Amino acid sequence: MIKVTGLKKHFGDLEVLKGIDQHIKPGEKVVIIGPSGSGKSTFLRCLNLLEVPTEGEILIEDESITAPKTNVNKIREKMGMVFQQFNLFPHLTVMDNITLAPIKVKKMAKAEAEKLAMELLNKVGLADKADSYPAQLSGGQQQRIAIARALAMTPDIMLFDEPTSALDPEMVGEVLEVMKDLADGGMTMVVVTHEMGFAREVASRVLFMDGGYVVEEGTPEEIFTNPQNDRTKEFLSKVL
Amino acid sequence: MPAWVIDLLERLNSTFIVDGRWQWFVSGLGYTLLISLFSVLLGLVIGVFMALMRLSNNKLLRGISGVYIDIIRGTPTMVQLLIIYFIIFGNVHIEKWIVGFIAFGINSGAYIAEIVRGGILSVNVGQTEAGRSLGMTHKQTMANIVMPQAMKNILPALGNEFVVLIKETAVIGMIANIDLVGAARKVQSLTYDYLVPLLSIAVIYYVVIKIISTVLSKIEKGMRKADKR
Lengths: 240, 229
Description:
By secondary structure, chain A is an alpha/beta fold.
């Protein structure tokens, strides 16, 4: 579903990704962990070209997104993204936040988009907030709306960039709950997170990144109980 | 009654009452406001386009708007008005107030472009990323997400630009005596009285601008309240 070969990314002289090869299969839940500055967010952002790779190739459902002639917008429709800072549109109601892209991009009828939005709001448990503005909601509620907004495009893949890092501790649970439901529903997910409990419970595969490389990967079992690499051991001993 | 009061009343009479001259002031104020309003609207259209060009990835577009802004800001409004009237519209018959608003609009466009550019840059880059990650094009993201937020940020500066324009339109006198200053000059040429007509239009300008800036700051306050929610 996602095939990454020789992915490198430089910001000026700074080499953030130094060569990554990954193959993510349909239905997989890949959780990326690692110290800050290890390149995990950059890797995730390369997958939908919010960062343009310096080198390497990325195939999404067998289509190259790094080829110069690719219609990037078309490919992005298949991938939902959830950001650390939610990035809801503050000037629009919750309903409009969710229906904007389906109406503008998929040319969906307004009534149909609103029906879909209500279903998604039910799913994330916020049906009563349809007419609220983002500023009226808590962080946890905003992030759940952001997930609903991404789902409204019926993506095949969901990318999560530290979705709980900007939340107050008591709100982390509600967002992880929604993500677990999504995982149980069979969604292909790539999640960058510091929530080790979530990684352990939900991941089908955990990648440990450090210094621009995927240093170690395996099932949560392998990574958390029997890490092989010294850097992985050191990192886990600090966060667990 | 002291002699100076009688004198003043006499001068007010000859400025405003005789031959219905007050109508000149009314029509002058009308033209002043009309030209200002159209100028700020034209300036807004030009400004938005120039700001978008200035922020585009295309070198040529960036260059064009850079040169435009540079030249307009580097030359006097009066000279721009004269060039547009005598050279560009030199052989065309066209109403002078239209020439005026085109000139002031082009002028104001350069300043508004910088205001709009600042407004666009003030919108968090995460907003653009969220829009693009949903599959929206650059244009759709700009129109539906970035511009509405940018506009809210620039409204106060835009109101200020309108107030500046109201005062600047007095320069229209270089090509036509149709605005407030024109009214004062027409009266002056008949009565040889400078004091009363000039002080009168100063008062009119002041009152009009006071009203407009009060209304604008009320609107601004209302908008800030909406932000707090």
